């Protein structure tokens, strides 16, 4: 009897939901369908073009390639140095995101959980960075990084045309959103757990790293993904700060170079291959962490 | 194990709110002390000050022979159980229990020995590998207790640890808390707003109100000899009945008159409560516990000398073993700030009944053999040896030794 009751109640619930949503349910799905097309078509087109010949690319957009031109990928990887740029991108983004998350979460935790004079002011200072476009301070930023290069001892490592210099700038630009989001997230976590850890004998540092940080995992993961995407796609900052040393370039610069280097005689096939290579890692990251991102975003949004 | 002493402890929050006002309290080694009071009375704040989670604004707190005012929680050698358990959600039960021990750099063998002992004591053995999210409320509560037990601290601090459990589980956990304390004998400070918990658990109970200590005594003494109207109204369920009365001395000895009734006051009461004779011919507030009533018919025979009180039962609450009889008496309810505060704190649903024509609602607890129905007239008897008298202005109990000193 109980077994029969459960499916019936589920069917009822489904019916009920359908009735509640009514025509809007259909509209929602229609809108989502349009959105899917908008997102999928350009990506599919890019991947398709990456295995076409030049002539095919300029022919019918929907035609399939006569033969799989995998040499496009090889050309992009070797001749356009996309391989090197990819490694550079991975290194810069890895350190950039790690630094952002480390400093961002620590700052957010303290701002969210400890009361001290100036707490609010520091928080607002961080958050005001959100309203601060990258382009606005590009020239001063260039000089700042140039000056960093003249510092004793560490100078050569963090000046212009260094990855560490770029990483520091990435961290600085990513902190506002990271602090803003994580501070809100830390505020939603129960304070008694931290107190229990204090009574158990943990120091402030240990409470943060061993108790609060694991509890904030959904939030941490979503902000991490957000930062990875943002820093991976960053073009303006490396263009300015890594300008003169080609061997230090990141992926975005490499791709732009393919399309501009040869003037009107650009290698379009290789360009699409390079673009595909740049898209793939992000696609993989997003797919793996998709559920975590959803969880994190809704957890933050509820409060 | 150690004693805990609070000496003139104050807590003043930003904005000048005094949450705890000059509390003096001595908790003996191995004692189970319950802090009880309505919400906002400062009991949790006091506990958190002992734990080191709140700064102490004034006075000093001594655990063992150390003044701990400026020690962080981890150096006070205390363990705390929180209302919402505060388990570490990403650790298994075993890791939760071991966390505090690991931090104290205890050898692995000793840690696992203590964890297993505690798990056995609390019946948590089969859950050691589970995360808190996969446990029921009662199991989580036991893990929280276990986390305190494995530490073998100088004292346990418990902040309403049972209030998130359902009623039945609360009763059984109360019993296991009692046996646990018996077995371990660790000094325990227990905060609750539930006076039944306070009565059943405490070696001694400390009643707080608005940050001020009202009375510290054994549960029975609190019940029998409340120091003022607030304690009298707060402790005991159903709560004490109050009425404005007048003490008179007639031919047949002293008696107390209220609402058309006249109860004789035995001579012993005057010797027990020195100073009561000064109220003769004056107004005072009379208090009678519901349990000091009984049905005259049932009580016949063993209620010699008890006064009789004919009333009409308005509402009856049958509890199985006894019946709460709610009846009206012809006198306005006592409007003293203490009784109002205690009534707000308690869960007296009868206070919500509409009262007409300056009558007040009293409760008598009679034997269930009485079978009294609502609307019936019933003759109650009152144990006049247990009458309580309070000063109408100060609200203090007349003749209570603590009040004699002031």
TrEMBL record, chain A:
GO terms for biological process: transmembrane transport. It holds the Pfam family BPD_transp_1. It comes from Streptosporangium sandarakinum. Keywords: Cell membrane, Membrane, Transmembrane, Transmembrane helix, Transport. This is N-acetylglucosamine transport system permease protein. It is found in: Cell membrane. InterPro entries: MetI-like, MetI-like_sf. The chain crosses the membrane at residues 21-45, 85-111, 123-145, 165-186, 207-229, 268-289. PANTHER family: ABC TRANSPORTER PERMEASE PROTEIN MG189-RELATED (PTHR43744:SF12), ABC TRANSPORTER PERMEASE PROTEIN MG189-RELATED-RELATED (PTHR43744).
TrEMBL record, chain B:
GO terms for molecular function: ATP binding. Signal peptide: none annotated. Keywords: ATP-binding, Nucleotide-binding, Transport. Residues 4-235 form the ABC transporter domain. It comes from the Bacteria. PROSITE patterns: ABC_TRANSPORTER_1, ABC_TRANSPORTER_2. NCBIfam families: PRK11650.1. This is Sugar ABC transporter ATP-binding protein. It comes from Streptosporangium pseudovulgare.
């Amino acid at each position: 009897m109980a077994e029969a009751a459960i499916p019936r109640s589920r069917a009822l619930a489904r019916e009920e939901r359908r009735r509640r949503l009514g025509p809007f349910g259909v509209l929602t799905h229609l809108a989502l369908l349009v959105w899917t097309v908008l997102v999928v078509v350009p990506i599919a087109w890019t991947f398709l073009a990456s295995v076409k010949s030049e002539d095919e690319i300029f022919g019918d957009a929907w035609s399939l390639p006569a033969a799989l031109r995998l040499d496009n990928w090889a050309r992009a990887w070797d001749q356009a140095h996309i391989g090197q740029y990819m490694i550079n991108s991975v290194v810069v983004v890895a350190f950039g995101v790690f630094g952002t998350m480390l400093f961002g979460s620590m700052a957010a935790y303290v701002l969210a959980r400890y009361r001290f004079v100036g707490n609010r002011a520091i928080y607002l200072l961080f958050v005001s960075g959100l309203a601060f476009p990258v382009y606005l301070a590009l020239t001063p930023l260039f000089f700042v990084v140039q000056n960093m290069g003249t510092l004793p001892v560490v100078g050569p490592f963090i000046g212009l045309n260094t990855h560490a210099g770029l990483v520091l700038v990435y961290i600085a630009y990513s902190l506002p959103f990271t602090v803003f989001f994580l501070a809100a997230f830390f505020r939603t976590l129960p304070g008694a757990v931290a107190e229990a850890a204090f009574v158990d004998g943990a120091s402030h540092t240990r409470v943060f790293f061993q108790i609060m940080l694991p509890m904030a995992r959904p939030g941490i993961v979503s902000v991490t993904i957000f930062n990875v995407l943002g820093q991976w796609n960053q073009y303006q900052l490396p263009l300015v700060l890594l300008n003169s040393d080609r061997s230090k370039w990141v992926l975005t610069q490499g791709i732009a170079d393919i399309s501009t280097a040869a003037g009107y005689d650009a290698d379009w096939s290789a360009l699409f291959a390079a673009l595909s290579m740049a898209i793939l890692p992000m696609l993989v990251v997003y797919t793996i962490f998709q559920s975590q991102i959803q969880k994190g975003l809704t957890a933050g949004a509820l409060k | 194990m150690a004693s805990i002493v609070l000496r003139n402890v104050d807590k003043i929050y930003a904005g000048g709110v005094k949450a705890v006002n000059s509390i003096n309290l001595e908790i003996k080694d191995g004692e189970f002390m319950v802090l009880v009071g309505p919400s906002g009375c400062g009991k949790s704040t006091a506990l958190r000050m002992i734990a080191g989670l709140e700064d102490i604004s004034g006075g000093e707190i001594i655990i063992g022979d150390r003044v701990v005012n400026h020690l962080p929680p981890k150096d006070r050698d205390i363990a705390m159980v929180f209302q919402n358990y505060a388990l570490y959600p990403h650790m298994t039960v075993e890791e939760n229990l071991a966390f505090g021990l690991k931090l104290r750099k205890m050898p692995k063998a000793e840690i696992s020995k203590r964890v297993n002992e505690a798990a056995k004591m609390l019946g948590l053995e089969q859950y050691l590998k589970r995360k808190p999210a996969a446990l029921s409320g009662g199991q989580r509560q036991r893990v929280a207790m276990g986390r305190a037990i494995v530490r073998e601290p100088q004292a346990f601090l418990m902040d309403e640890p049972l209030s998130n459990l359902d009623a039945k589980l609360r009763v059984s956990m109360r019993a296991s808390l009692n046996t646990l304390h018996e077995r371990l004998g660790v000094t325990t400070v227990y905060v609750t707003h539930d006076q039944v918990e306070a009565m059943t658990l405490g070696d001694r109970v400390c009643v707080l109100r608005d940050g001020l200590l009202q009375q510290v005594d054994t549960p029975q003494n609190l019940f029998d000899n409340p120091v003022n109207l607030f304690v009298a109204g707060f402790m005991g369920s159903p709560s004490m009945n109050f009425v404005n009365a007048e003490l008179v001395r007639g031919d047949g000895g002293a008696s107390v008159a209220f609402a058309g009734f006249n109860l004789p006051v035995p001579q012993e009461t005057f010797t027990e409560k020195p100073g009561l004779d000064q109220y003769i011919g004056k107004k005072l507030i009379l208090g009678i516990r519901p349990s000091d009533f009984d049905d005259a018919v049932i009580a016949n025979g063993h209620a010699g000398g008890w006064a009789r009180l004919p009333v009409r039962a308005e509402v009856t609450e049958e509890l199985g073993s006894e019946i709460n009889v709610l009846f009206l008496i012809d006198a306005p309810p006592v409007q003293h700030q203490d009784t109002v505060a205690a009534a707000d704190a308690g869960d007296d649903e009868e206070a919500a009944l509409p009262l007409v024509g300056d009558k007040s609602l009293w409760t008598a607890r009679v034997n269930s053999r009485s079978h009294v129905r609502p609307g019936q007239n019933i003759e109650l008897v009152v144990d006049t040896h247990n009458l309580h008298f309070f000063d109408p202005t100060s609200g203090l109990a007349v003749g209570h030794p603590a009040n004699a000193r002031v």
